[in-house]
Design brief:
The structure holds two protein chains of two kinds. By secondary structure, chain A is an alpha/beta fold. Chain A contains ten helices and ten strands. Chain B folds into two domains: 257 residues, no CATH class; 230 residues, no CATH class. The chains are: A alpha/beta, B mainly alpha. Chains A and B meet through helix 2 and helix 3 of A and helix 1, helix 4 and helix 10 of B.
């Protein structure tokens, strides 16, 4: 379970995240939507323990990330938007190192690494250097790493960027299976179709504040009632489509 | 949870080094031979130098011992200051800016374990260069004094804590800096401070005019000189402890007090820095992730000046872009400060050179010195070109797609890089040569010849650097690292050969001219023809190197996959 309470992050005078509270229970995929610069990545990085909140609390499976950082991180899988992978390690070496970081024992790591590589269709790349991987393959490798230690909660920032349709399908299936097994998943995305298809509940953040929350049908009902598309509701809630301005510029 | 000890966190670097060693890249062998050869020569020279000096000091008995003791303390004092500064810069990178921290900080690794792994890496990274210098020096000293294995073991046991103490101090300073300024701004401040420190140190040391010590009339000042040498060597500094420990061991004894001072201070500093790190690391790391609105200079005068230049718009925009990026990156332009200090030193040396005191240094020899000066200017030119011109294409980095997808011909792009590099290189080396020749007071014809040779060499070497930079770009690497790549090394080798050939081609007719002028003998027709041919060959070779390199560079860009 992931729970955040009144989370605030200020950069000098600028408030990037302004009193956000959120709860993702086990088995739920929670979409975290918002326009660019709304505070999504900052929030996710605070949950992952990469940024120190100015105020508020983050609980991962009951562990306060400020008080018990190791216990909280041990039960969390984090997939950043711009992941770091050691270029000069092979896919297998990277995963083995990652497993060790999360406390997996030597006998367990080997089998688990192969299992994850098979699942994410990277098995034949196990002994190739990461520098030769495509963007989509790197993305899948990071997902292997995030699920390697069987986390009970996962935070993922823009999971579909750079994935081909087959890769995207695979990731959606994996996330759905993980959720069915009780993993809490908090996922930020700009792809509203993905959110619509995958998420049990959605929170929309704008200028650091949550402005809407609910199931997909509940969010849709916040529109004008005539449009079934999440895009129209999203644009309405976050400041309009700007179509008039586009017409003026295009001429 | 299966908690692994901190060395586990060092594994990716070891694995990466192993993988890198397994996969040989083009030019690895040539680079290995060249750098290995240079390294061995430097190592042997340091061993031989310290052996020779220590051997000579033995002739002076007590005074020799005294000087050796002072020398050791000074040696370690120099390394101490270097290690402290290097520790700050390295800690900034290893603790706060390294890319893999995003992975490690998000994982359930205790702060203390992360600290131990990072501190170990910082000590190794900050001190390897000092160790490489200090080892041959100590081998030379031990060899001259016929020291037993105990001396070398003591040396090992001294160097380890000696490296830990200043690096620990540097790590604390970094921790304070990062908790005060954003990490990226702190790096700029540090870079600038360090280079200003190095440049001023070089200038101050030179302006003390150590050559005066060689004059007989300055001998009465010798006691003052020793007093000055001793003043900064305070018994409270680890450099003094290291010097004393090694000196005692050299004499066959053991200075346990100073050895204990070194080890206890080193261990205590690790404990204290570890505790400080535990308290303030995360807040500092968090701050280093924040990206507040960057402060920068607009350089509007640059836009105005560029508009005044008779250039097509695209060339003007490329020039303005290159200059602004260069000037806004402190790590790039601050290296020019060090270069400026060395140039000042170079000119100062010529201005204080008292040629009348050296009997042979007049007339013919003095004029020949102009060619030594030309060679020096050539090497300065090659160094500046490999550092600033060679990476010109690589510095486009991941943004090179903008150039490649634009309708700009790649030839125009590369020629723009050439002219942007040529103007400062030519101005610097021409100024250097003209001023130095003026100080030397050489023959007017040679002044003109040197000035012309510099023009030819500038075109050729800047063209060579631009062309090879386009043939061997390293878009992913830091521009400063491109100089050490295969292409950078290839440039240096070709540049040195070119400089030698040009000096020979310009030097030979000039020396014939001077010889005839001294003897007041007329030139034969064959001599005149050969002299002219030699000068034409110099000009022709320069033109060929310039144009062929640029053409090859343009072709390489066009064929880029």
């Amino acid at each position: 379970m992931i729970a955040i309470e009144n989370l605030v992050k200020q950069y000098g005078q600028f408030t990037a995240v302004d009193g956000v509270s959120l709860e993702v229970p086990p088995g739920e995929i929670h979409g975290f939507l918002g326009p660019n610069g709304a505070g999504k990545t900052t929030t996710l990085r605070m949950i992952a323990g990469l940024l120190k909140p100015t105020a508020g609390r983050v609980l991962v499976n009951g562990h306060d990330i400020a008080q018990e950082p190791e216990a909280a991180k041990l039960s969390l899988g984090f997939i950043p938007d711009r992941p770091f992978i050691y270029d000069k390690l092979t896919g297998g070496e990277f995963l083995r190192f990652h497993g060790g970081l999360y406390g997996l024992g030597e006998p367990e790591i080997g089998g688990r690494v192969r299992e994850m590589l098979e699942l994410f269709e990277l098995a034949r790349w196990e002994h190739e250097l990461v520098e030769s991987f495509s963007h989509g393959m790197k993305q899948r490798l990071v997902m292997c790493a995030a699920f390697l230690h069987r986390p009970r909660a996962v935070v993922v920032d823009e999971p579909m960027v750079g994935l081909d349709p087959r890769g995207a399908r695979l990731i959606k299936d994996v996330f759905r299976r993980m959720a069915e097994r009780g993993v809490a998943i908090l996922m930020s995305t700009h792809t509203l179709e993905v959110a619509q298809e995958m998420c049990d509940r959605i929170s929309i953040i704008l200028k650091g504040k949550i402005i809407a929350r609910g199931t997909v049908p509940e969010i849709r009902s916040m529109g004008d009632g005539h449009d079934d598309h999440l895009t129209a509701v999203f644009l309405k809630l976050t400041g309009g489509s700007g179509l008039q301005e586009i017409d003026e510029v295009v001429g | 949870m299966n908690v692994r000890a901190f060395p586990y966190l060092l594994l990716p670097h070891l694995w990466a080094s192993r993988n890198r060693a397994r996969r040989r890249e083009r030019g690895d062998f040539a680079r290995g031979v060249m750098f290995g050869g240079v390294g061995l020569i430097v190592f042997a020279a340091l061993v031989q130098g310290s052996y020779w000096l220590t051997g000579h000091l033995l002739d002076y008995e007590e005074l020799g011992d005294y000087l050796l003791r002072i020398g050791l303390s000074w040696l370690f004092l120099t390394f101490l200051s270097f290690l402290a500064f290097s520790g700050i810069v390295t800690a900034l990178s290893t603790f706060f800016l390294a890319d893999d921290l995003r992975l490690l900080v998000a994982s359930p690794v205790a702060t203390r374990r992360l600290f131990h792994a990072r501190f170990f890496r910082t000590v190794v990274q900050a001190s390897w260069m000092v160790v490489i210098f200090v080892v041959p020096i100590l081998i030379g000293i031990g060899w001259a004094r016929c020291a037993g294995p105990g001396f070398y073991l003591t040396a090992l046991a001294t160097i380890v804590p000696f490296a830990i103490i200043p690096v620990a101090a540097g790590t604390v300073v970094t921790l304070l800096l990062v908790n005060t300024f954003p990490a990226r701004r702190a790096r700029d401040i540090l870079m600038l401070m360090g280079l200003l420190f190095a440049a001023s140190l070089v200038i101050v040391l030179r302006f003390i005019r150590p050559e005066q010590l060689l004059r007989v009339e300055s001998l009465p000042d010798l006691t003052d000189f020793f007093a000055t040498l001793q003043s900064p060597i305070t018994p409270l500094l680890p450099s003094f402890w290291a010097g004393e420990t090694l000196f005692a061991s050299l004499a066959g004894g053991a200075d346990l007090m100073h050895a204990a001072a070194l080890w206890t201070t080193a261990l205590a500093s690790v404990v204290v820095v570890g505790a400080a790190n535990e308290r303030w690391y995360f807040s500092g790391y968090s701050r280093s992730q924040e990206a507040p609105k960057a402060r920068f200079t607009h350089f509007r005068a640059l836009d105005v000046a560029a508009r005044a230049l008779p250039l097509p718009t695209v060339r003007r925009q490329l020039l303005v872009k290159d200059l602004k990026i260069f000037l806004r990156d402190v790590s790039q332009w601050s290296q020019l400060l060090l270069l400026l200090a060395l140039v000042l030193l170079y000119l100062y040396n010529f201005s204080v050179l008292d040629l009348q005191r050296i009997p042979y240094m007049s007339g013919y020899i003095k004029n020949v010195y102009a060619f030594v000066n030309l060679g020096m200017a050539g090497f300065v030119m090659a160094t500046v070109a490999v550092r600033f011109v060679f990476p010109a294409v690589s510095s486009e980095g991941a943004a090179f797609w903008i150039i490649r997808t634009s309708p700009l011909p790649l030839g125009d792009f590369l020629w723009s890089k050439f002219w942007t590099g040529l103007v400062p290189v030519l101005a610097l080396t021409e100024g250097l040569t003209v001023a130095a020749n003026q100080f030397l007071g050489i023959d007017p014809l040679l002044k003109v010849m040197s000035a012309l040779a510099i023009v030819l060499m500038s075109f050729a070497l800047v063209g060579l650097a631009t062309g090879l930079g386009a043939r061997y770009p390293r878009f992913g690497a830091d521009p400063s690292q491109a100089a050490g790549s295969y292409g950078g090394v290839a440039f240096m080798v070709q540049a040195v050969l070119f400089i030698i050939v040009i000096i020979a081609l310009v030097g030979w007719p000039s020396s014939v001219y001077l010889m005839h002028q001294m003897r007041r003998a007329p030139f034969t027709a064959a001599q005149q023809l050969l002299m002219a041919a030699s000068l034409v060959a110099a000009a022709g070779l320069s033109l060929f190197v310039w144009l062929a390199s640029m053409r090859s560079g343009v072709r390489a860009l066009e064929q880029m996959g």
